[in-house]
TrEMBL record:
Entry keyword annotation includes tRNA processing: no
Any one Pfam family match given in the protein's UniProt record, by short name: Carb_kinase
Residues annotated to bind (6S)-NADPHX: 74-78, 141-147, 170, 272, 333, 379, 447
Residues at which K(+) binds: 75, 137, 173
Family membership: In the N-terminal section; belongs to the NnrE/AIBP family. In the C-terminal section; belongs to the NnrD/CARKD family.
EC number: 4.2.1.136, 5.1.99.6
Naturally occurring in which organism (per UniProt): Allochromatium tepidum
Note describing how the cofactor binds: Binds 1 potassium ion per subunit.
Catalytic activity, as annotated: (6R)-NADHX = (6S)-NADHX; (6R)-NADPHX = (6S)-NADPHX; (6S)-NADPHX + ADP = AMP + phosphate + NADPH + H(+); (6S)-NADHX + ADP = AMP + phosphate + NADH + H(+)
Gene label: nnrE
Described function: Catalyzes the epimerization of the S- and R-forms of NAD(P)HX, a damaged form of NAD(P)H that is a result of enzymatic or heat-dependent hydration. This is a prerequisite for the S-specific NAD(P)H-hydrate dehydratase to allow the repair of both epimers of NAD(P)HX. Catalyzes the dehydration of the S-form of NAD(P)HX at the expense of ADP, which is converted to AMP. Together with NAD(P)HX epimerase, which catalyzes the epimerization of the S- and R-forms, the enzyme allows the repair of both epimers of NAD(P)HX, a damaged form of NAD(P)H that is a result of enzymatic or heat-dependent hydration.
PANTHER family found in the cross-reference section: ATP-DEPENDENT (S)-NAD(P)H-HYDRATE DEHYDRATASE, ATP-DEPENDENT (S)-NAD(P)H-HYDRATE DEHYDRATASE FAMILY MEMBER
Protein name as catalogued: Bifunctional NAD(P)H-hydrate repair enzyme
Needed cofactors: K(+); Mg(2+)
Length: 510
């Protein structure tokens, strides 16, 4: 069977497509390629298997013993192609079949027959072989909607317990293609190669935990296939969003670069407001004032004199500060005592652009309202309080949770976490940030994000652009800081990386 000339699988990073799709959308692309553009289904399967095989030879060139775990659907069909090509190249190949091979239909059945005609043997699954250099996960694909059980769950659990690397075809088996939810148990892949369209579930929920190194191939389907579909979301990263920061005028002064007012820092929590303020300066704000509790106001900027600090006892004390501010960031260390509540109730009624975080979000949850020009930055726990639900429910479908938050509270919502989501009003599609790392799960990182977004908004970016660019700059700064290791990364390490990144110096110290 002739194999088409293929685009190469792409490594995780800048060259991955930015459009993210739901599984049903990708199935429509598949049908259009077949029915409207005359690409036979078996040809698409051959292309997918060839791309996967080429990737495994490049990624694991010393692998000689290959075990393919195959299901009965099209994902299994892709696996049979990999097995056939590997066997033809002289590799020691075993195919372990889950489900009855005779249940394979359509292109999967053709692929199975081609493998057997080439001399390949299909074994029923019993246990995993002890001596294997590489496993290929071709079990379940994107159509899974219910929890994995029985022999399938046993096989996936066994696969996760062994040491050899695993290449997942299209998506790790057991991972929901739309939400990234683990359906009982899922394959922890060393690498995943996704076909035709990038699946949303690879970037949200547990997707980043289970996908491993991500690769992609469009399988040479005609570009017109994608024309009629609006992506479910857009993948964003700093490499792309950095274009929003244009060079400054040679005659700019600090007033041209925006004045951020940070409101927060109850007794015992002054550090949160300080982190937000310093992050705003490092992200380019011309002026930053911190309105904080009188108990520590005179000490807050001792080692950062560029920050202006004002003691505020009551809401009225904010009036003069607000007149000079372009953007107000409220919430870091605000607390929920009468002091914090009073400041929040005063600020929430103002016409200024707002960035709302931390305890300001908790206070908003107690008395909900909407605002057209604010950016809300909840983590999953705060999102749960805002929607009157549980953190588990928020995490079960993060994109839908962000949609519900935006519909209820207006403005732009940043749902923080692995694959932070930015959801603004239609018609712009929601965005999922693919930068960032687990080291950023550290105290104060959210306060830094608040300052970064406020600074970009103060410098003139529109509300949705400020949220997207801020999320990506913050995440990229976390990645830069993590070059010294993720464990032990602290919020001030992220702040230190903001300046070179926002000036296009990301490569300077590599």
């Amino acid at each position: 069977m002739r194999l088409a000339r293929l685009d190469r699988p792409l490594p995780d990073g800048d060259r991955l497509p930015h459009a993210l799709y739901r599984a049903e959308q990708v199935r429509r692309f598949d049908r259009l390629a077949i029915e409207r553009f005359g690409v036979p289904g078996i040809e698409l399967m051959e292309r997918a298997g060839a791309v996967a095989y080429r990737l495994l030879r490049e990624r694991w060139p010393n692998a000689r013993r290959l075990t393919v775990l195959a299901g009965t659907g099209n994902n299994g069909g892709d696996g049979y192609v990999v097995a056939r090509l590997a066997r033809a190249a002289g590799l020691d190949v075993r195919v372990l079949q889950l489900g009855e091979a005779d249940r394979a239909r359509g292109e999967a059945a053709l692929s199975l027959t081609a493998y057997r005609d080439a001399g390949g043997v299909v074994e029923g699954y019993g246990t995993l072989p002890r001596e294997t250099d590489l496993y290929v996960d071709a079990l379940l694909g994107t159509g899974l909607e219910r929890p994995v059980t029985g022999q399938w769950a046993e096989a996936i659990t066994a696969l996760n317990a062994q040491r050899a690397p695993v290449l997942a075809l299209d998506i790790p088996s057991g991972l929901h293609a739309d939400t990234g939810r683990v359906l009982g148990v899922a394959v922890r892949a060393s690498a995943t190669v996704s076909f035709i369209g990038l699946k949303l579930g690879l970037f949200v929920g547990a997707g980043a935990e289970y996908r491993g190194e991500l690769h992609f191939s469009a399988l040479d389907v005609p570009a017109q296939v994608y024309a009629g579909e609006i992506p479910a979301a857009a993948r964003i990263d700093w490499a792309r969003e950095s274009r929003l920061l244009v060079p400054r005028s040679r005659i700019a002064h600090k007033g041209d670069c925006g004045h951020v007012l940070v409101v927060g820092g109850a007794p015992g929590m002054s550090g949160a407001a300080r982190l937000a303020g310093e992050a705003a300066l490092r992200a380019g704000a011309g002026l930053v004032t911190i309105a904080t509790h009188p108990r520590h106001a005179d000490r807050l900027n001792l080692d950062r004199p560029e920050l202006m600090v004002s003691a505020v006892e009551r809401p009225d004390d904010l009036e003069a500060l607000i007149e000079r501010a372009d953007v107000i960031a409220i919430g870091p260390g605000l607390g929920r005592t009468d002091w914090g509540r009073g400041l929040w109730e005063f600020v929430r009624t103002l016409p200024h652009p707002l960035v709302v975080d931390a305890d300001a979000l908790n206070l908003l949850a107690e008395a909900p309202g909407s605002g057209p020009d604010w950016i809300l930055t909840p983590h999953p726990g705060e999102a749960a309080r805002l929607l009157g639900t549980t953190t588990a429910e928020i995490e079960s479908d993060r994109l839908d949770s962000a949609r519900r938050l935006q519909a209820r509270f207006g403005g732009v919502v940043v749902l923080k976490g692995a694959g932070s989501i930015v959801h603004g009003p239609a018609p712009r599609v929601p965005a999922v940030c693919s930068d960032g790392n687990p080291g950023m799960a550290t105290a104060g990182a959210g306060d830094v994000l608040t300052g970064v977004i406020a600074a970009l908004r103060a410098q003139g970016l529109e509300v949705d652009d400020a949220a997207r660019a801020g999320v990506c700059l913050h995440a990229a700064a976390g990645d830069r800081a993590a070059r010294a290791g993720e464990r032990g990364l602290i919020a001030t390490d992220i702040i230190a990386a903001l300046r070179p990144l926002s000036n296009g110096l990301a490569e300077a110290d590599r």
